[in-house]
Design brief:
Blueprint (H helix, E strand, L loop, with lengths): L5 H5 L6 H11 L4 H17 L6 H6 L6 H10 L6 H13 L3 H19 L5 H14 L6 H11 L5 H11 L4 H14 L5 H7 L5 H14 L5 H7 L5 H14 L2 H11 L4 H11 L3 H4 L13
Helix pairs in contact: 3-5, 5-7, 6-7, 6-8, 7-8, 7-9, 8-9, 9-10, 9-11, 10-11, 11-13, 12-13, 13-15, 14-15, 15-16, 15-17, 16-17
Length: about 300
């Protein structure tokens, strides 16, 4: 990696066509492990410094012979919202020979689904995103691809998407059930509250984790007692998800529990509770009015 140090990589930010070609001429002479390290470094650098833009470099390596390189490049495109990038991701999701790459591409497409939910995507692009996720979420897709598609159908939240979420939830595969629960949370729809509450007591920690996250996204106060119980879960990730969810839902009971955790001896949990407390209404609004629940005429 002497030829592609971090300092050298940083010089390829906002690369034009000639610089992209220069980068590829160096990359193509490296072994697969070296290429993996180089692209992983680009991805990490782009995440750590938003001023660095390696999008065109990463697009150029989507045809690399190594699937890890291709998947890492897809992950690095997390901020690239250009229609041309969506085209490339859709093509990868449908045609790449490796399931891991196709699953990564579906996750990338899911970020466009989030924009669709915000009303920040044109109808034409929104239709393509929805159609791609619907197809990938079908029962004939490999489980890894299907799970990622189902997760992001929560942002679409129409009748066909709901049917596919339910189909995945009824699967015998725990990973698909976990993906379905994540999708339920992303709908922010209280129709799923009862299901999410049941899954907060699931024996599988991954399911409990997803249920806790979903409860926080749906923001139904009925989840607070179960989330307080999950703060004491044996699985640390479940505890952290429950803490964040309490911060999202709010209320006196949630605040009391978060204060208890913040004052406790578990430093990781205490820090998470401190962050969650900042999201509570009592911290920013002493009279307890939740602005998102007030209709402004």
């Amino acid at each position: 990696m002497e030829r592609l140090t971090h300092a050298a990589l940083a010089k390829f930010t906002n690369a034009d066509a000639s610089r992209v070609s220069e980068f590829r001429s160096v990359l193509d002479r490296l072994s697969a492990p070296e290429r993996r390290r180089a692209i992983h470094a680009l991805k990490d650098m782009g995440e750590e410094d938003v001023e660095l833009n390696f999008a065109d470099i990463l697009i150029s390596v989507l045809e690399d012979s190594d699937p890890v390189v291709r998947a890492t490049a897809v992950d690095g495109l997390w901020e690239d919202d250009r229609p041309a990038t969506l085209d490339r991701l859709i093509a990868l999701s449908e045609r790449d020979r490796e399931v891991t790459v196709r699953a990564a591409a579906v996750t990338g497409i899911g970020r466009f689904a989030y924009r669709l939910a915000l009303g920040d995507l044109s109808p034409r692009l929104g239709h393509r995103v929805r159609a791609t996720l619907i197809a990938a979420a079908g029962p004939n897709s490999p489980s890894a691809i299907r799970r990622r598609a189902v997760e992001h159908l929560g942002y679409v939240n129409d009748e066909q998407s709901i049917d596919l979420i339910l189909l995945a939830y009824r699967s015998r595969e725990a990973s698909l059930r976990a993906g379905a629960i994540r999708a339920m949370g992303r709908t922010c729809d209280r129709r799923w509250v009862e299901t999410v509450l049941v899954e907060c007591a699931n024996a599988d920690p991954e399911i409990r984790f997803e249920a806790a996250q979903a409860a926080g996204e749906i923001e139904d106060p009925r989840a607070v007692p179960l989330l307080i119980r999950l703060v004491r879960d044996d699985d640390r990730e479940v505890c952290l998800a429950a803490i964040a969810a309490l911060g999202a839902i709010g209320g006196a009971d949630a605040r009391d529990e978060l204060v208890r955790v913040r004052n406790g001896k578990e430093s990781v949990l205490a820090e998470a509770a401190d962050i969650a407390l900042q999201d509570l209404d009592v911290e920013s609004d002493p009279i307890g009015i939740r602005l998102r629940d007030v209709r402004l005429n």
